[in-house]
TrEMBL record:
PANTHER family: CYTOSINE PERMEASE, CYTOSINE TRANSPORTER CODB. It comes from Liquorilactobacillus vini DSM 20605. InterPro entries: CodB, Pur-cyt_permease, Pur-cyt_permease_Fcy2/21/22. Pfam families: Transp_cyt_pur (PF02133). GO terms for molecular function: cytosine transmembrane transporter activity. It is found in: Membrane. This is Purine-cytosine permease. It is a multi-pass membrane protein. Belongs to the purine-cytosine permease (2.A.39) family.
Length: 455
């Protein structure tokens, strides 16, 4: 491995430049976005109080995992998918890396699609173009997707410092916007009206299904945790700040989406979860062009994190590929994926299908990585060996089949648990499946791999 590769794989403490505020701002900014507003609007199908409870507890559990992965990133100075080599093997880590690439490309596409809706509304207000969903509205959406993709490529091409700048400026403007939207919402309806609002029976979302929805939304960030905390100088800010920042961000912005969606349902007498996107909400609340511009900006703040995580995962798959080129590749792929909801015909249907995929494949990966580092490896990875062929992390021809088999069991287990009525109405499948996956991995490595003395 040459010096350039070593530098990209491991970040020594002396070369780290992030601090506690950077970590907090990054993770608030990660959730200060269109997707979080939208998930809040979707959660309105549970009713206000139940939605808040599920948002908090499901998010807190997910971000506890974010803190654990963030700590590993701080200790090792290695990206999340680089860390995955310890549990999945050097070649085996290609599996979680491929999944990470696909899911972060998916999230980039989700945010880009919602931002393109805002562009569509802007073009309607400025030029009279039809908005998306109306006859001729595809023209504005296609133009919006292209514009947003160009902005994303410009932002990531400018380096990590520019991403930090986007986050810092963006979060200030977004905070101003959500305060403004909150004032507008509560001028229309009161908090007591929102609390008392009843979901139409045909739109009700089962509690367990809602837990899984929120879990999938939040767990997606966990596999990006170490990509950022490996640049942090202190363990406390690498663990506490991602948890606090992400939790504050998701609760705040999902709350806005939740109350805005319910307020429109109350004032109009019609509730349609398909109209929970921020662009439709901003338009119906009469927030104007400035609000649409802020929504576009939030796409850039969230997708800076999404694209960086996807690019890092692609670099783990193709170590000779420079991060800059990886970022360009994933940005272009995300542009293509953004057109998929148009094929589905319903953004909500496409979004729900995507969340099911994320929950099924990510939960077991995260459990395996956490159990391997904290229990099996006793918080010690040999960093040099993580890149060495025939070393301790080479396992069987570069693949740790125990991790692969456990992941497969976990993915199938999630699919089966999700179909059980009891879990649909109570805890959901995600966290039960993660617990079982962690226990299975620990059992298999403890009783069938004693020679490796990992557990």
């Amino acid at each position: 491995m040459d010096n350039q590769q070593k530098g990209s794989f491991h970040i020594p403490l002396a070369k780290r430049h992030s601090n506690a505020w950077d970590m907090f701002a990054t993770w608030v900014g990660a959730n200060a976005n269109n997707g979080t507003w939208y998930i809040g609007g979707v959660m309105a199908a549970c009713g206000f109080l139940l939605a808040l409870k599920i948002l908090f507890f499901s998010s807190a559990l997910a971000y506890l995992c974010l803190s654990l992965i963030g700590y590993i990133g701080f200790r090792t100075g290695i990206s999340t998918m680089g860390i995955a080599r310890g549990s999945f093997g050097i070649r085996g880590s290609i599996l979680p890396s491929l999944i990470n690439v696909t899911q972060f490309i998916g999230w980039t596409a989700v945010n880009t699609f919602i931002a393109a809706m805002s562009v569509s509304y802007l073009l309607h207000d400025l030029l009279g173009w039809p908005v998306y969903g109306k006859i001729g509205g595809l023209k504005g959406m296609i133009f919006g997707i292209i514009v947003m993709s160009i902005l994303h490529i410009i932002s990531i091409s400018s380096g990590s410092r520019s991403i930090q700048l986007i986050e810092r400026i963006g979060i200030i403007l977004v905070i101003i916007f959500v305060l403004w939207e909150t004032v507008v919402v509560f001028r229309v309806v009161s908090l007591s009206q929102i609390i008392d609002w009843n979901v139409p029976a045909k739109f009700k979302l089962a509690p367990g299904t809602a837990v899984d929805t929120v879990a999938a939304f939040n767990l997606a960030w966990v596999t990006a945790g170490a990509d950022f905390t490996r640049f942090d100088r202190k363990a406390t800010s690498a663990t506490i700040m991602p948890f606090l920042g992400a939790l504050v961000g998701v609760m705040w912005f999902a709350f806005i989406g939740l109350v805005a969606t319910i307020s429109i349902a109350i004032s109009s007498g019609i509730y349609d979860p398909n109209n929970s996107d921020p662009s439709s909400i901003a338009s119906r609340l009469g927030l104007g062009i400035l609000a649409l511009l802020v929504i576009i900006l939030t796409s850039m703040t969230a997708n800076a994190v999404n694209l960086m995580a996807a690019g890092s995962a692609l670099t783990n798959i193709l170590p000779k590929l420079k991060l800059k080129y990886s970022l360009w590749i994933v940005a272009l792929l995300a542009t293509l994926v953004t057109f998929i909801p148009m094929i589905f015909g319903s953004f909500l249907d496409a979004f729900t299908a995507f969340l099911d995929y994320v929950g099924m494949v990510l939960g077991p990966i995260i459990s395996i990585m956490i159990v391997d580092y904290f229990i099996c490896a006793k918080m010690k990875y040999n960093l040099a060996e993580l890149t060495q062929k025939n070393g301790i992390y080479w396992y069987n021809h570069g693949i740790h089949w125990t991790a692969i088999i456990t992941w497969l069991i976990g993915a199938i287990g999630f699919f089966l648990l999700q179909k059980i009525y009891f879990f649909q109405e109570t805890f959901g499948a995600t966290y039960i499946d993660m617990l079982l996956s962690g226990l299975i991995y620990w059992f298999l490595t403890s009783f069938f791999e004693r020679k490796q003395t990992k557990c």
